[in-house]
Amino acid sequence: MILNSTNIDFRAKLLLESFSSELRLLATDHQIDFSLTTNEALALAIFEAYRGSQRVAPNPCVGCVVLDQHGRFLAKGHHEFYGGPHAEVNALNGLTEEQLKEAHVIVTLEPCAHQGKTPSCAKTLANLPIKKVTYGLKDPNPLVAGAGAEILKTAGKEVHLYNPAGYDLDLTQELEEVAEIFLFNFRFKKTFLSLKWAQSLDGKTALLNGESKWITNPLSREYSHFLRSIHDATMVGANTIVEDNPLLNIRMENVDKKSKIVIFDPYGKVLVKEKEFQFTEVHQSENIYYLIDELESKRINPTKQFESILESKVSNIIFLDKTKGFYDPLKINDKLFDKGLKSVLIEGGAKTIQFFLKNCEWQRIYTFIAPIILGQGQSYSEAIVNHSMENKIRLNYSKSFSFGADLLLSGISGNYN
Predict the structure, then answer these.
(1) Signed CA dihedral, 107, 109, 114, 115: sign only
(2) pLDDT at site 417
(3) What is the mean pLDDT of residues 290-318?
């Protein structure tokens, strides 16, 4: 695995920086014969889990490390792609029963209890001569949710839910973050929404005339494609389509994921002229979704042709509800989830970002900050009015990472904790 700026989550990079030199070598696929604490093994498993982030959805990123009876490192593995072997199976692959005698298996998420596209990991582990299993988080999937741990206990294995007491580094938040989309989907039955934008030091996302290419450097822009690759879909507003005519696809080597796009297009101005925009050249029609205000769009486009377009696209249209006088972001989220979109990266423009930001309907923010000052210009936050510091929007568990001279700052919303 090549550790460059674009093929792994920045949170994994930050975790890697905390590793000892030996642990860092293990993370980069060197084989070293030495002992690990449970915490060190779990940290390594978290890092390993991120390696599947572009290919496992809607399953979670999961990593696994196996230690022998003396605590020495034996193997590691991760869930590589949806429908493929789980992390535990990949970690165990190639190990003999002799090596596994009294071994300790450390995994980031509770081993699955049910058979789906792959066999039950809990049952697989139960039939091996291992002594102990430590798992980082309880699986919220009702098909697992404690049942995996119970299978192992019934088989006579020592089973431990991760407890950070006694360790210098508490990995609880890292465990949450590596599987955050999956966990959020099951806990709240909602779509995980990430907001992403690039800004200058003075908080501008574009000049007054709308020009925004380029605020950030090539490394940051390349990493933005990684962010697209770990979400089910990318959302932009209609004005972004009209003004920038973007492709909105994933342009990364060795990534062939067919991403989906969502266009916030209340008045149907993109929908009615869809073929004029280049995103239709790289996205299949079934992967293009529209947020449409049916009444307003028909008022602005009062033709039989437009009604025919609405009818032909109905399976990919999410109709906006304005019965309360405004578009309800909670209902939009519900409808995105009903369409099977488990995660959406909202990239712009400024008004679309503002809509979700001010309504606090988002789960994570990624903001790239460039060392430039634009002066007067457009901002993602100009429509947000606070009359008290108590109402300020705060990122929880925020982390930062450098991409050359640019800074990526990211954190999560406290609304759903």
Answers:
(1) negative
(2) 53
(3) 93
What architecture does CATH give domain 10-180?
3-Layer(aba) Sandwich (3.40)
Examine domains 10-180 and 189-412 and report if their fold is the same.
no
- DSSP 8-state class, residue 84: S
Mean pLDDT of 48-63: 95
Three-state DSSP at 392 gives: coil
CATH of 189-412, picked from 3.40.50.2300, 3.40.430.10, 1.10.375.10, 3.20.20.80, is: 3.40.430.10
This prediction has a pTM of 0.93
- Return the active site residues: 88
Contact residues for 333 (Cβ-Cβ < 8 A; gap 6+): 190, 191, 193, 361
Please answer whether residues 229 and 255 qualify as being in contact, where contact means their C-beta atoms are separated by less than 8 angstroms: yes
Beta bridge partners of 399: 410
312-349 in b/e burial notation, b at 16+ Cβ within 10 A?
A: ebeebbbbbeeeeeebebebbbebbbebebbbbbbbbb
**Beta-bridge partner residues of 410:** 366, 399
